[in-house]
Fold this sequence. Notes:
The protein has 436 residues and is mostly beta strands. The protein contains four helices and 27 strands. Strands 11-12-13-14-15 form a five-stranded antiparallel sheet, with no helix packed on it. The protein has a five-stranded antiparallel sheet with strand order 16-17-18-19-20, with no helix packed on it. It has a four-stranded antiparallel sheet with strand order 1-27-26-25. A hairpin with a 2-residue loop joins strand 21 (315-319) and strand 22 (322-328). Mean pLDDT is 85; it is low at 1-37, 39-43 and 387-392. Pfam families: DUF4185.
Amino acid sequence: MDRIRKRRLVRTGLLLSPLLALVAVLVLARPGGDDTGQDRARDACAPLTVTGWRVDAAMTGEFARYGDDNTRTDDWTGGDGSRSVRLPDGRTLWLSADTFLDRVHPETALGGPSRDPSPVWVRNAGVVMAPDGRLERTLLGPGPGALFPGLAAADGREVWRWPAQGVVEPRRPGSSERVVRVLLWQREEGSDPWFFGIPRATEVATLSLPDLAVESVEPIDVPAATDPAQRVLYGTSAVREDGWTYVFGADERTAQGRSSRAHVARVPDGSLADRTAWRYWDGRAWSADPGAAAPLPVGAAPGEDPGRGASNTYTVTRRGDTWLLLTTDAGGPDGRGMTTVTSYWACSPQGPWHGPSDALTPPLPDGGREAGAVVYNPQAHPAFSGGGPHGGRALPAGADLLLGYDVNVTQSTAAVQRDVELYRPRFVRLELSASR
């Protein structure tokens, strides 16, 4: 059981991570008012915690098999920011942020499998998994380039997009046609303290079905704050429920040595790409003004350190009427934010969120500790959880939960080229138990 910390990759020779601020603490806000129907949800839900876990060697191994296959050398061999979207025909679209392509060399007595010291890489990609669980192909742009192409700032600095969570929804409200919507984080090349990019905007990409062609990228929110640390980007998690998609996000005050804060918005089905349809939780009600958004009440248990909370790349899912938030334990005692995934539960997406409860310390690959590897970005994949496919909706009682996490060596890109397992997602299955 090894440390959980955020990696940092430097661009042009060292990749930038979409999750560099993982060790940020989310400020613990006091609960706001209840939304209509919240009392009903509270009556139905119960405390939910992680009571056990086991390694999912099959899913971890499938990514290793696909990454090591040199049938093509213009496809995925490693990446981070890993999230999944179950498609209507049973396939799954996996979304990847900074992604290595190129050839993988077989394992030798000196180690590996390995990549060349300076492999081809792109800012984002998609990987398609067949209904039988076999990864089949990588989605890229021309070049090969990023699936979601970047831009350039007025002064020529790079502007790129990192994919966050995606969902399948109607093309427009009431439509029978389905499309994939992918939340994107737009970032701009910056300097200290913004080595991982200055946050610029939340966007939504639309992909057609079944061919997964990128049709458009629409701006959703361009934060008005002049201080980049105050800008909230949405999409670390998204959950569909009762005709709405709840989209979770956080600000980035950690870059200035302060704690970050979680937020949530909701959008009617079929409207994720329509910025006028978004409503932001302001602590009492859902507001059309993103500037009115209030921090979520994600808090430490009574009597514990009030600075303890979630990271800015948390994940949210549901079982029954209980909402579950999983995160690295940012702000935990004795540096536990570097080692432990914790959980919070709530009866509504806007909270209050109760916890934390310890969940697990995700294991590193063999040799990971010696190489200085870290794990980060725990993400739930409910469509792969026990009890059958759930399409991002609530898990049934008794279902386990597939949780993925990313691995990297923060101080050495050379290390992740010498051993490709040090920059690939890994998976565990969580046992969940409710109490009343």
